[in-house]
TrEMBL record:
GO terms for biological process: endocytic recycling; protein transport; retrograde transport, endosome to Golgi. Residues 706-940 form the Syndetin C-terminal domain. Residues 35-326 form the Vacuolar protein sorting-associated protein 54 N-terminal domain. The lineage of its organism: Eukaryota, Metazoa, Chordata, Craniata, Vertebrata. Keywords: Coiled coil, Protein transport, Transport. This is VPS50 EARP/GARPII complex subunit. One of its GO terms (cellular component) is EARP complex. Residues 197-224 form a coiled coil. The keyword Coiled coil applies. GO terms for molecular function: SNARE binding.
Length: 947
């Protein structure tokens, strides 16, 4: 109330008024409504100026009545508020009294506390007086002593810390890296405890430097494992990195060291050889790039350097392999014990997983580095002038390296394959060219004499084919077999298992060269005294029991010459007995030195192909050229003679003709005069070889030797033998051939190799055509009178002359067979040719007859039957070739005009002259001129397409 202004005080109701108000019964609800009607602004704050507020609310024009009404309203509101305040005061009265009592009690407590404090101060004063300064000094000294004892301990630790530097150096010299790191870390931990000393802060930084120094030395130690892996050494290094918590960093560093080791190793090896061969040359080889350095390797030092290069790289790869092994074993050991702290285990698993992935990824990277280094070395030198054996050694070493790569990381070594393929193709073309020239020289100096080989001769006995018997995959080099042939168990081991602790897979590539010698040649015509004796014993034992009487007689006749000789009976003996014409040559294959040379070449080519599959097609193509050239030479020397090539006999099949034409176009070089001045031809001629010429020592015109029959047999049968060897190699070649090129191989076999035996026909035809005097027989037949009127019982003399010729031929065959075995197919071809020619000569003789009667035709049949009967005793060839050719011609005499017309259409094997003779001589007397003209016209029509 005191805060109200004078005006407000004036308006506050007096006590009496309040009492009146209280006494007046007011409805609480009505009272509450009056209070609620008071404006909000009255309750806002104490600074509120009510008078000002009300005056401002007055309207511009004042109305007394309204003012009074408004004043009454305000009074009512004030009265309601006053009443409300008074009620509240009365309501709170008991609480006020109670609080006042508590205040009084608090005052009493405070007075008590003041008394207690006074007593305490008084007692403290007494204690101070009773406790002397000497006692407190004693306690202070005790505390100081305790502090100094702690300081002494710290000083001793500091002294030890300062001395650890020396011990660390000793440990590093001993290569005890884990111990040194452990000590260093402990020192660091101790130093951090005493870091408040200034000297220790310096020591701490020194220890950090030492730790870095240890890491550097550790890195050097890690790099040493790249060339010579030592388990103990590597275990220490890895433990040290684990203590440092840098397992992953160590792995990154290790791979960098391996890459560096490969580069340094190959550079040092090649540099050593280059400087050794260069002597005192001033060339700065040290500063050269590795690729350029490789081009300075000499041919003599190429293989030793390559071997040393591979040996050195093997050491690096073996170290990497053993590093991986160590980690695998270490992982197994770590995962097997009981669980440690979960956090530690988690970190360890992460590290192991990282290391494993890094090592596996590193395999491919390291092998790629190795390949690139060896590739640079391979391509740095032109190998086209290498000796064959040297080149095979190079292939062998690279093949072994590729095997290492496959076992190292399962790589197919595409980089190495590509580089060695390029070198191989280059070398092989050069080598093959020289071999073809060499083969031409062999063929031109070949006298086609029999090369005496053992009867059990097999190409597998030749050095060049030894690799085929070793039952290994073509990608594996021959030296591997030498290394692993000691036992079956070893063959299953990989190179890394075989040479894990000692040795090197590149040390054995030359050792297997001189292991055994060949033994394929027969001595003095016999394989051995025992075999010779054995063959004769076989003959003696079998002669009486197994051989029929008539055959024995034939055999005796052969020795004495009393009876006509039978080459076929000898063949029959051979089929019954183990011996042939000449006992010591029982089953020996017919071949020449040149054949043997070609077979050896094929072996060498296959060896190269076996080691290096990528050039398989190039090699097989060259192998086919060797066979092509040999076949072409045999044909050119002995079978090319247009004079005797009769198309009607089909001596040369269309397949053989196509093959010979192909060889001539693709392989035989045309003489310079025929195709000169064309640049393209020069390039093409590099692939071609001049046509060979028969040696002057070989005489094919002497009738005494049956026109060089012995040489012809040796040449032709050696070709057939060569074809048989090719057949036996087909499956092996097929496995080598890329799938896309297999049709070439199949075509070569079906169109070339299989035609070898077909050359027998044209070659032996030449002998058959000259061996018997067919011209003389035609003359004798011309002298015979055929228009006789009575049946004759005696055959003509020309038949005896012809049979005498055949007997003479048989005897000469036997003479030849004493020098060269004549196989049954050869003897059959010769007899077939001779009999065919004889039969065709007979038909030609009968076609020359101007006049002939029925009796004359009967005489022809008698002559022919006599010839057949005697001939069948001379040869076992059945049926007699072209027998029907003669019989049909003789029987055609009896045909009518209509039958003759059909006969002319059906029998085109007879010549126009022979058919015309049938019309003129046989039918001439029975038909008119018009009919004869018609038949002759039909003959002419048949002959026209031939012309």
């Amino acid at each position: 109330m005191a805060d109200l202004s004078p005006v407000e005080n004036f308006r506050i109701p007096s006590k009496e008024e309040l009492r009146e108000l209280r006494e007046q019964p007011i409805d609480p609800q009505a009272e509450q409504e009056i209070i609620d009607s008071i404006e909000e602004v009255y309750f806002s704050n104490d600074a509120f100026d009510m008078v000002q507020h009300e005056l401002e609310k007055l309207p511009p024009e004042l109305n007394l009545q309204e003012l009074e009404e408004y004043r009454d309203k305000l009074k009512r509101q004030q009265a309601a508020v006053s009443k409300k305040v008074a009620d509240l005061i009365l309501e709170k009265q008991p609480a006020y009294v109670k609080e006042l009592e508590r205040v009084t009690a608090l005052q009493t407590n405070l007075q008590l506390a003041a008394v207690i404090c006074t007593n305490a101060r008084r007692q403290l004063g007494v204690a101070k007086e009773g406790f002397t300064g000497a006692s407190l000094g004693l306690l202070a000294n005790q505390r100081r002593r305790h502090l100094l004892t702690g300081l002494l301990k710290s000083l001793r630790t500091i002294k030890t810390l300062q001395r650890t530097d020396v011990r660390l150096s000793e440990m590093l010299e001993e290569e005890d890296y884990p111990g040194a790191i452990q000590l260093c870390l402990e020192c660091q931990k101790a130093a951090s405890t005493f870091k408040h000393y200034s000297c220790i802060s310096e020591l701490n930084s020194k220890l950090q430097d030492t730790l870095e120094q240890i890491e550097e030395q550790l890195d050097v130690a890690l790099s040493k494992t790249c060339k010579h892996f030592d388990v103990a050494h590597y275990t220490k290094v890895q433990l040290a990195y684990t203590l440092l918590g840098k397992t992953q960093t160590a792995m990154d560093q290790l791979h960098m060291h391996f890459t560096q080791a490969i580069h340094n190793t190959v550079f040092q090896v090649v540099l050593g050889y280059v400087e050794l061969c260069a002597g005192n040359a001033d060339t700065k080889f040290q500063k050269m790039q590795y690729k350029d350095l490789c081009t300075h390797i000499t041919l003599d030092s190429y293989i030793p350097c390559l071997t040393d290069l591979c040996k050195a790289l093997w050491e690096v790869m073996l170290s990497y392999h053993r590093t991986m092994q160590w980690h695998e074993e270490h992982d197994n050991m770590e995962t097997s014990p009981g669980p440690g702290s979960n956090k530690g285990q988690g970190d360890s698993v992460v590290d192991r997983s990282y290391v494993k992935k890094k090592l596996e990824h590193g395999l491919t990277r390291i092998w790629q580095d190795v390949q690139l280094k060896v590739k640079a070395y391979i391509l740095g030198t032109d190998m086209s002038n290498f000796k064959y054996d040297d080149f095979i050694v190079v292939l062998d070493v690279i093949s072994r390296l590729m095997q290492v790569g496959e076992e190292f990381c399962g790589s197919k070594s595409e980089v190495l394959q590509e580089s060695i393929k390029w070198q191989s193709v280059n070398y092989f073309k050069h080598y093959h060219r020289a071999r073809l020239e060499e083969l031409r020289m062999f063929l031109e100096n070949e006298t086609w004499e029999l090369c005496p080989v053992k009867s059990n001769f097999n190409i597998a006995q030749l050095h060049e084919f030894k690799f085929m018997g070793q039952c290994r995959s073509p990608s594996v080099s021959p030296s591997r077999q030498a290394a692993s042939s000691t036992g079956l168990a070893q063959e299953e081991l990989s190179l890394f298992q075989l040479y894990l602790l000692e040795g090197n897979p590149f040390e054995m590539h030359i050792e297997h060269k001189e292991e055994e010698t060949e033994d394929v040649l027969a001595s003095n015509g016999y394989e051995s005294d025992e075999l010779e004796k054995c063959v004769y014993q076989d003959y003696d034992n079998d002669s009486d029991s197994d051989v029929p009487e008539e055959l024995k007689q034939d055999y005796v006749d052969e020795q004495t010459g009393d009876a006509p000789l039978k080459s076929v009976s000898r063949e029959t003996i051979r089929s019954k007995k183990k011996s042939d014409y000449n006992l010591n040559k029982a089953n020996a294959p017919i071949l020449t030195n040149t054949t043997l040379n070609v077979i050896r070449l094929v072996g060498k080519y296959m060896q190269m192909m076996n080691i290096l599959k990528p050039i398989a097609f190039d090699v097989i193509h060259c192998v086919s050229q060797l066979f092509d050239y040999y076949l072409y030479a045999v044909y050119t020397f002995f079978g090319r003679n247009d004079m005797y090539e009769s198309s009607s006999l089909g001596l040369i099949s269309s397949r053989l003709r196509t093959t010979l034409n192909r060889i001539q176009e693709s392989l035989i070089e045309v003489a310079a005069g025929e195709n000169a001045g064309v640049h393209g031809a020069v390039e093409e001629r590099k692939e071609k070889v001049p046509s060979p010429h028969l040696s002057q020592l070989v005489v094919l015109t002497n009738s005494g030797t049956l026109y060089g029959l012995a040489q012809r047999v040796v040449a032709t049968e050696s070709l057939v033998f060569l074809a048989e060897q090719f057949e036996s190699l087909q499956s092996h070649l097929d496995t080598m051939m890329p799938a896309a090129k297999k049709p070439f191989l199949q075509q070569f076999y079906s169109q070339t190799v299989s035609t070898a035996s077909e050359l027998r026909k044209p070659i032996y035809w030449i002998v058959a055509a000259r061996a018997i005097d067919y011209e003389q027989m035609l003359l004798l037949m011309a002298g015979v009178k055929w228009d006789i009127r009575e049946i004759m019982s005696q055959h003509n003399v020309y038949v005896d002359v012809l049979l005498k010729e055949f007997e003479q031929f048989n005897k000469r065959l036997a003479d030849v067979s004493r020098h060269v075995r004549i196989p049954l197919p050869v003897s059959n071809v010769l007899w077939e040719h001779c009999i065919r020619l004889a039969n065709r000569t007979l038909v030609e003789g009968y076609a020359n007859v101007k006049k002939c009667s029925n009796e004359g035709r009967a005489l022809m049949q008698l002559d022919f039957q006599q010839f057949l009967m005697k001939l069948e005793k001379l040869t076992d060839l059945r049926p007699i070739p072209d027998k029907e050719f003669v019989e049909t011609y003789i029987k055609a005499y009896y045909l009518t005009e209509n039958d003759m017309e059909q006969f002319i259409k059906n029998h085109r094997e007879y010549s126009m002259k022979q058919l015309a003779n049938l019309v003129n001589v046989c039918l001439g007397s029975h038909i008119n001129k018009k009919a004869r003209q018609k038949l002759l016209a039909a003959i002419d029509d048949i002959d026209r397409p031939k012309r």
